[in-house]
Amino acid sequence: AEEERHQLWLREQAALQEAEQAHKEAEAEHQRLHQLLMQAPAGIAILRGPTHIYEMTNALYQQIVGRPASELIGKPGRTALPEIISQGIWDIFDRIYATGEPFIGSEFPAALDTNGDGGLEQKYFNFVGQPIHDAQGRREGILIHAVDVTGQVEARREVEELARQLGSERELLALAQEAGRIGTFEWNIQTGSISWTQELEALYGLPPGSFEGRLENWLQRLHPEDREQSVLKTQQATTVSGEVNTEFRILWPDQSSRWIAARARVFRDEQGQPLRMVGINMDISEHKALEQRKDEFISMASHELKTPVTSIKGFTQVLQRRLNERNDEQVRRFLARMDKQLNKLTQLINDLLDISRMETGKLFFHVEPFDLDEVLHEVLESLQEIAQDHLLCLEGNTKAQVVGDKDRIEQVLINLLTNAIKYSPQANKVFVRMSIHDGNVVVSIQDFGIGIAEAHQQHIFERFYQVSEPMEKTFPGLGIGLYISNEIIKRHHGTIWVESRKGEGATFSFSLPLSRQQGAIESPGGANI
Fold this sequence. Notes:
Layout: H1 2-38, E1 43-48, E2 53-57, H2 59-65, H3 77-80, H4 89-99, E3 103-112, E4 121-133, E5 139-148, H5 150-166, H6 169-180, E6 182-188, E7 194-196, H7 198-203, H8 215-219, H9 224-241, E8 243-251, E9 257-268, E10 274-283, H10 285-326, H11 329-359, E11 368-371, H12 372-386, E12 391-395, E13 401-404, H13 406-422, E14 429-437, E15 440-446, H14 454-457, H15 481-490, E16 495-500, E17 506-513
Parallel strand pairs: 12-14
Antiparallel strand pairs: 1-2, 1-5, 3-4, 4-5, 6-7, 6-10, 8-9, 9-10, 11-13, 14-15, 15-17, 16-17
Helix pairs in contact: 1-10, 5-6, 10-11, 12-13, 13-15
C-alpha cells in the first residue's frame, strides 16, 4: 500500500510538472502573439470591459492618438481620450461591446488632441472594432485595427476642389491622371505607332517627349518575366476579346521595377478589323507593396503560431492520458474543450499558411491517379462520426479515376461538407451526388440551410469575402475556406460553382477531368508537374 501511494504521488508530481510546462508554453505564446501585434503595419489596441480600459496599444496606435502608452494603459477610454466623447466614438464602442457586432469605419472622421495642447486635429481612419470573446463565448473586450488615411482623404478632397474650380473636363482629366499616377496611350494598330501622354512617360521614368513611339519600345521596358504574358494579352485583345485588363512590372532606366495596371479597349472598323487601342496605365506599386507586407505578416504570424500550438496540443493530450488514470471527469471535459479549440486554431493556421503559399507560388501538389469515389467514401465516414445531427446521404457511384493531389481534393470535400452542415442547423440531411458529364466527374453537395442571396454568389470564392447579412454573421469564419477550395480545383483544371436561393439551401458543385483526359496540373510557378 505504501508503494502504491508513493507511485500515485510520483504520477501526480509528474502531471503537475507537465501542467506547469504547458502554462509556460502558453505564456510564451502569449508573448509571441503580443510581439506580432506590436509589429503589425496598423494601429492596434485592445480594450477590456464595458468601460473600455486600455490593455495594450502598439506604437502606431500611440502615434495615431498622440499619446504614449503610459497615458493609455490601465485607463478607461473616456478618461484616456476625452476629446472624442462628444464625437460619439465611445458610443460606437459601447454598442460593439453590448451587441457583439463588429463596426467597420471607412474614412471615419475623428478630431484628436495629438499635440497635447487642447487643440483638435481632424483625422480620418479606416478602422475595424472587433468584439473579443473568452473561451466560454462571453464578450470581454474589443480589438481595434486602425489605419490613418488622412493624407489620402485630404489629397482627394484637394483634387476634387481644384476640379470644381477648373470647371474643365480636359483639365480635370489631366489633374486626375497626375494625382492618381495615371497615364494614357493610343496605339494605331494599322501603322504600329503609339502616342503617350507626358503622365505615362513619367510612369515609365522617362522625360517628356522621349518615348520612341513603337510597340517594341514599350515591350523592351517590361520586366523580362512579364513580357511574354503581356504580348499574349495584347494579341488576345486585338483578335478576340477587344479589351485589356492586366498587371505587369516595368523597368525604369535605372533598372528599378514598378508595378503597372493596364486597362484598354480596341476599336474596330465596319468589317471588324482592329484600328486602334486606347487605354490607361496606372502605377500600383504602393498597393502591391502593401499586399506583400500583409501576406508576409500573415505568413509570419501563422508560422510563429504553429509550433507553440502544436506543443500545447501535445501537452494537452499528455494531461488527458494522466487524468484518465485519476478518473476526474470534470477536468477531462475541460481538456476536451481545450483540445477542440486547439483543433480549430490549428485548422485556421493551416488555412492561413495555404493562402500564403498560394500568394508566393509555393503551394505544390503531389500528383498521382486515385479513385475519387474511394476518397469521398472515406471523408463521409469520417465526418458522419462527428456530424451527429445530420445524415450524410450519398447518391451515385462513378468509379471515377482522376489525376491530382488526393489530400488536396479531400481538403475541398471536407470544407464543402462542413460548410453544408454548419449553415443548415435546422436540417438533418445533406445530400452528396456523383455523376459523369462530358469527360468530367461532378460532385455536388446539397444542404437545406439558410442559402445564399444571388448578389453574393459571384463573390463567395474571393479571398476573405464574408456575407454581411445579419443571419450569416451568427456563423463564425474568416472567408478563406471557399477561396482555398476554388484555387485547388482551378489548379486541377476543374471548375467550382454554387446554385442557391436565399432561405432555400445551397448546392456547391465541382468538376474534375477524368484521368484519361487529364493533362498535367499547372504548378503556381507555371511549370507542369
